[in-house]
Amino acid sequence: MIASEKPVIVQSDGSILLEVMSGVYEEARDAILPFAELIKSPEYVHTYRITPISIWNAASLGVTCDDILARLARYSRYDLPPGVVFRIKEAFSRWDAIRMLRDEGDRLKIEAKNAAVLEQILAQPRIKDCVIDVLTPHAFTIPADMRGRFKHLLIKAGFPVNDLVGYDPGEPLKISLRQKTLSGRDFTLRQYQLEALENFWAGGSTRGGQGVVVLPCGSGKTVVGMGVMAKAQTCTLILCTNVAAVHQWIGELLDKTELGPDDIGEYTGFKKEIKAVTVTTYQILTYRKSKTGPFEHMQLMQARNWGLLIYDEVHVLPAPVFRATTEIQAKRRLGLTATLVREDGLEEDTFSLIGPKCYDVPWKELESKGFIAEALCFEIRLPLPLDQQQHYMLESERAQFRIASENSFKDSVVKQIVHRHADEPILIIGQYLSQLKRIAAALNAPLITGATSNSKRDNLYQAFRAGEVPVLVVSKVANFAIDLPDASVAIQVSGTFGSRQEEAQRLGRILRPKQRVSTFYTLVTADSAEDEFAHKRQVFLAEQGYKYCIEEWSPDDF
What is the pTM of this model? Predict the structure, then answer.
């Protein structure tokens, strides 16, 4: 490949520019994605960034420093800046620079690759305070109950700890997967699900047992979780985002494993069952009567001798559960998510306390093999009504975002899209209740919000699945872990400020495999605060290989 045809430009600040119009764009994108994070994606040039976390996640998947440098050199138009090469090598030098091993009694042994590294980390007072004994110029011991806290301190100091201590096997529990589901369908793990399972399990060695599996919505992350449970053969605690997700997990466990109702407990606001497999929500774990009161249900993390904890939608793991996770590092921990992006910047915490990314696969690859639905993405840009423009200009940025999000012209666009897809199941998703109530009333469609009872939610979801409700309007409560396999159209009328997580989850609502092509619409007020945030949200979709078709709408179209 001659230099002028290479689509990558590596800049001295570590950012990477990738030209979209290049004939080898997709090839180059797939080459750099394992170790670079997409930052922005305008029409012609996408910008990526290399970070220590992105390098360490790549290293955990077996990508070497030489691999990264070779890939960059292959697609880079110019020589790699020496400073960038140095920083990549520096990040790799810290991978496996600190190992954590089992020692005698209630102690853990910390080994640094050399005395200089040990001296560097012990210069941190909070790390030095953890030390019991210095054994050699490059090893010391810490209390076993400091396992999580120490890893957390080290990641903040710029060192990922290679945790080789191993795990408490937990209370034994016989778990086997069915060969046929309760409905009589053949059931077996797909190849990529097996790969994810084996990468996490790592033969049962100390190298495995902790980590995050990244798979798109609709591709069967729950099945991977059940496969890990069958490997572990131990009592399991499963943490979910909401009660609907709890019920879905329980349904899947009954359908696809030999576990019975007596083995599976629901621990929510409605039931407080602790059984061999217990499914709960992050919300119940973080419940307290006052801001300074105790977390009344956090003891559930240690209520039984769990051998495995599964964190569903791990990218939304609340900070209090992170803190609890520092104390239970002896348990195997599996995180499941469609995207590792955290808008709160706690990717380091996920890495150190749940584990590194142990499996990832491009969404488009699964789409091409028919494991998730093909999806077309449209951004519909429309003006703000004239009578709202002056009010908009006088407001704060946050207020402007809401005014743009609730643009009344969107109601007319929604009606046209619903008419266009009259024979398909349609989800309308938004952020603001006043807007959603208005749209639901105009369409005579049911609305699900945070105030909707769980029983009513379950009934409406079931009616939608059965085709009895053709259009369902949902607030952000439906962002996570809702299985609506027949949905083939999603209309996003408003969203959270620039959240890539949310974009991934909402697209995921229509990616369950089906015969028809799915369609994802995002309605955006042009030249507004919402327009600016929409670009950030689209970064995730561009990273996964999706492209938006942009349509301009005007009042004359209504």
Answer: 0.80
